[in-house]
Amino acid sequence: MNHDYDLIIIGGGAGGLAAAGIGAGVRARTLIIEQHKLGGDGTGYGCVSSKILLHQAAKAAMGVTISYDTVTGKLQELQNRISGHTEHAERLRKQGVDVKMGRAVFIDSHTVVIHYSSGERQRVTGRYFIIATGSQAHIPSVPGIGRTPWLSIRNLFDLAYLPESMIIAGADPTGTEMAQAFQRLGCRVTLLDEVDSILPGTPREITSILQDRLEKEGVNLLPGVSLKEIAGDELRISVRVSRGDKTNVLEAEKLFFSTGRRVNPESLQLDKAGVRYDNNGIRVNTSCRTNLNHIYAIGDVTGRYRLTHMAVHMARVAANNALLRFPQLIDTKNVPQVIFTDPEIAHTGATQSELETNRCAYDIHRFPYDKIDHAVTEEADDGLIQVYAKKRTGRILGVDIVGKQAGEMISHYTLAMKSGITLKQLAGVIYPYPTYAYGVGIAADHWSAARRKNGNFSRWIQRIFRFKGPVEDPVKGPVPEENQIRDIS
């Protein structure tokens, strides 16, 4: 068939923009359709805005006096600089990509109708489609939700003044980051969640370090409580919560929901295209392809990942599979994640619970930040590197880090896992001293030292060369008992 476009991308977030760039790069006639603003929630409302706020709050934590007007002014300035809707559109058009600002709905598997805000409509056809419409904040159906003002990530950064107090419902990454940021700026924050710890799914050894910091900074943590009812107005919100058979009423000036994300594929009228989906999102295989060979979906709308960098990764996979017929698969094993609290929390690879569920034999090696000299010099030694690896080979299965620069350090482990580099080989990498990354090498050295101390190799060497001393870590001396390897089989 003769189509208007070789590739139509629905959604102009990070993933959609990446797919459009690939389409333009191979000279496919490409159209990108975005309903709101190019750049998506990640740059417009989520990742970028929250990191700007966290940076300003970190200054306040160091004793710098910062007015909230300064914070909001910096938010606006840097949002415009980074998100750059106009710049995105101009750059795409220079590359030959058509940009349409409207809402797209399918009328058949090769045709969409674009609904413009003016009321006009346009019908276009495409040979291939990539759906990248993202997700929206999920707000629970709690009694009183329709009568009470509340905040989500969409309007949190529109606050014209700093609230005197705030209740944050949801101790997920965003809720935890914002709890620390607003507390540091001078707002009294209560952070609550239905589960019995912050950051569900993260090992307690990791979250306990952050939890101690939050409590010391004054955040009121209320884990294990259920939200029963909310009420109030623009000046005061009351929240009724329960734990077991006990009920309590909390009050604050503002209520912010950070209770996950949801997808809304129904708005695309996918049934008319014949694309399968469920409550979790559009179903795709590891090539990002839907049940139809010419329609792909990426990012949040698939329900697989809710990470900007994974949306971009999936965009590359989908675009290459569709346009070049070059088979590529999603990398599901080496996905780094970072929570930008202070201290940061980062993870890559398999989680500890996944390893135990799959009955995978592994060692846990823990390396504290107080053995990283740079962390000690900056008085940021309340951190931990926790590595899950194969006992005999040192093949890295997963890593959790809590501490300063954790987000930067996790990339070393992700690259090592992607390249098949073991802990033994990682110990041979020359890292510049005294960087935080130097700790990656020292942690690997400690693993090697513990292996030698706990194994038969050192005894064999002692016997051959008639050595008399105990095995010691090559950098720090004797391996402390708490850092020695624990075998989980």
The parts where pLDDT drops under 50 for at least 5 residues are 481-489
Q: Architecture of the largest domain in CATH?
A: 2-Layer Sandwich
CATH superfamily of the largest domain: FAD/NAD-linked reductase, C-terminal dimerisation domain
Please indicate the count of domains. Answer: 3
How large, in whole angstroms, is the Cα Rg? 25 Å
Largest sheet: 7 strands, mixed
Structural class computed from helices and strand pairing:
alpha/beta
What's the N-to-C terminus distance? 57 Å
What is the helix tally?
Answer: 15
Q: What do the pLDDT scores average to?
A: 91
In short:
With 489 residues, this protein is an alpha/beta fold.
Care to describe what's here?
By secondary structure, this protein is of the alpha/beta class. The strands form six sheets. Strands 1, 2, 3, 4, 5, 6 and 18 form a seven-stranded mixed sheet that branches. It folds into three domains: 5-39 and 84-135 and 263-324, 3-Layer(bba) Sandwich (FAD/NAD(P)-binding domain); 156-259, 3-Layer(bba) Sandwich (FAD/NAD(P)-binding domain); 337-488, 2-Layer Sandwich (Enolase-like, domain 1), CATH 3.30.390.30. The termini are far apart. It is globular, with a radius of gyration of 25 Å. A hairpin with a 5-residue loop joins β5 (111-115) and β6. Helices cover 33% and strands 25% of the residues. Residues 481-489 have low confidence and may be disordered.
